[in-house]
Amino acid sequence: MDKKLKKSNVLKIPDNVFKLISKDWMLITAGRIDDFNTMTASWAGFGELWNKKVCFCFIRPVRYTYQFTEREDIFTLTFFEEKYRKVLNRCGTKSGRDIDKMKGIGLTPVKSEHGSVYFSEARLMLECRKIYIHDLDPANFLDPAIEKEYPDKDYHRMYIGEVLNCLMK
Predict the structure, then answer these.
(1) Mean pLDDT, range 46-68, rounded to an integer
(2) C-alpha distances in Å from residue 122, one per residue of 40, 76, 90, 107, 108
(3) Strand partners for 80
């Protein structure tokens, strides 16, 4: 476990979660320390479901991280200080299929307690175990404007994960 991050109760997260996800962004990471991928995301949420503290996030099947998230039971969400904005931008605009995203960006991968990957530079990390998946179905969009988010019809898969660990600076 990283020495900068300390185990904490998920109920102690001090952030405004709407800002944390939509404005600050996060990295969704899946895989093992020797074979993982990460992507920047701003579509997610936290809550309680089935008597568990959960987070949910969305990944399009065309994203390289999708295959890692499908393969693994555990994924992490990591949040960073503003000084990492350029790193997050790179991880959201470049594919791990084409480049080594970790090369030269200043993030240090760390093996999580349950075998996934997070980054020691993070200020907040949630380690999650997949407990439910659901493919978004455009037939269920009640607001027609949502369809505009999918010009290529590449609808997201939603992952709901039980929060197993919360680490904070």
Answers:
(1) 96
(2) 13, 11, 16, 9, 9
(3) none
CA Rg value for the chain: 15
Domain 6-168 has CATH 3.30.9.10: no
State the average pLDDT over residues 65-78. 97
- Positive or negative CA dihedral for 114, 116, 119, 125? negative
DSSP secondary structure string, 48-108?
EETTEEEEEEEE-TTSHHHHHHHH-SEEEEEE--GGGHHHHHHHHHS-TTTS-TTTTS---
For residue 21, give every residue at least 6 positions away whose Cβ sits within 8 Å of its Cβ, in sequence order, or none: 42, 43, 44, 45
pLDDT in tens, 80-106: 999 988 888 777 766 666 656 667 778
pTM for this prediction: 0.91
